[in-house]
Design brief:
The chain is α/β, with parallel strands linked by helices. It folds into 2 domains: about 190 residues, Medium-chain alcohol dehydrogenases, catalytic domain (Quinone Oxidoreductase, Chain A, domain 1); about 130 residues, NAD(P)-binding Rossmann-like Domain (Rossmann fold, 3-Layer(aba) Sandwich). It contains 10 helices and 15 strands. Strands 3, 4, 5, 6, 7, 14 and 15 form a 7-stranded mixed β-sheet that branches. A 6-stranded parallel β-sheet has the order 10-9-8-11-12-13, sandwiched between helices. Strand 8, helix 4 and strand 9 form a beta-alpha-beta unit. Helix 3 crosses helix 4, helix 3 packs across helix 9 and helix 6 packs parallel to helix 7. The radius of gyration is 20 Å and the shape is globular.
């Protein structure tokens, strides 16, 4: 079978296509013929040995994939050949609270990922693909989808009438916008591009702010909503945290996810977070139960992930470069089948 390997922390240019034997499923295992994979910002970091990925080389990159069951091992009754499935980001986190043991095996980081034609999964780590999604769309779910679901629904506990602020137009942010609207919330969405802002409005954003022309966007968001937003889906990291604090209402929550924006500018507003009794909630994807709950909600509502561009399997390096450019609106995918 064809797959991509990273021999060391050399970045996307170090990814090499190789041949490996097709693995055979043992007891409790499922062999999946992968049809599609998608990229996350995390993948740009893990191929450089960052983001706490704890790699052992050679490593197959990417965490998010979807495909078709090829064969099952002894004792597997839940799936059969031909079933369409999605694999969980964390294979050992069935449900409940996170722990070191449950989060140890992260695809495309501490464990081989999905940029390969075939992969073995433990049967408990798979969920059925929502019937209305293509394999390319389903491949967007495991990391970006579950992260946004955890931020908005599971940990954010967003209710109808509340307000969520999203940052940019990457996969997590667009999923967060969609989930917030499913919950009946208002959405304040930011972007540095007026063209992308128009697309955010089409997805249902109630208020939009260009953060390049409005650097004090947190203040503007607070003024626009009257008292501040209930939840910020913070993908920028410390570089945008100050404005997120300004945007968040007293008693609100900042779901801290990403590291896109670099170091902070100016003085820290962390004291304001204390005075306003805000909560800073770290979010790292979620469990297999979370993936199932999110998939059920997506199926029930006919929701579709926002897809940007699809690359062929032999264009993997080009896909990484396009992701790194920041030009995308939604998910960047690689067709494997």
């Amino acid at each position: 079978m064809k797959c991509y390997e990273l021999q060391g922390p050399d970045g996307a240019e170090g990814i090499t296509r190789v041949e490996r034997p097709v693995p055979q499923p043992g007891p409790g295992q499922v062999l999946v013929r992968l049809k599609a994979a998608t990229l996350n910002y995390r993948d740009l970091l893990t191929v450089k040995g960052g983001y706490g990925s704890r790699q052992k080389f050679p490593l197959v990159p990417l965490s998010d994939g979807a495909g078709v069951v090829e064969a099952v091992g002894a004792g597997v009754r839940q799936f059969a050949a031909g079933d369409r499935v999605v694999g969980s980001f964390f294979e050992n986190w069935h449900g409940g609270e996170p722990s070191e043991a449950r989060m140890r095996a992260a695809l495309g980081g501490s464990a081989d990922g999905v940029l390969t034609e075939y992969r073995l999964f433990p049967v408990h780590a798979l969920v059925r693909t929502p019937a209305h999604l293509s394999d390319l769309e389903a491949a967007a779910l495991p990391c970006a989808g579950v992260t946004a679901w955890s931020a908005v629904v599971k940990l954010g506990n967003i209710k109808p009438g509340q307000t969520v602020l999203t940052q940019g137009t990457g996969g997590v942010s667009l999923f967060a916008l969609q989930f917030a609207k499913l919950c009946g919330a208002r959405v304040v969405a930011t972007s540095s591009s007026d063209a992308k802002i128009e697309r955010l409005k089409q997805l249902g954003a109630d208020v939009t702010i260009n953060y390049k022309t409005t650097p004090d966007w947190g203040k503007v968001a607070r003024e626009t909503t009257g008292q501040g937003v209930d939840l910020v889906v913070e993908v920028g990291g410390v570089g945008t945290l100050n404005e997120s604090i300004r945007a968040t209402k007293i008693g609100g929550t900042i779901a801290f996810i990403g590291v896109l924006a670099g170091p902070p500018a100016g003085n820290s507003r962390l004291p304001l977070m204390v005075m306003q009794q805000q909560r800073l909630q770290g979010v790292t994807v979620g469990s297999i139960e979370d993936l199932q709950a999110m998939s059920d909600a997506i199926a029930a509502n006919g929701m579709k992930p926002v897809m940007d561009r699809t690359f062929a399997f032999d264009q993997a390096k080009e896909a990484f470069a396009y992701m790194a450019s920041g030009a995308h609106f939604g998910k960047v995918a690689i067709a494997i089948g």
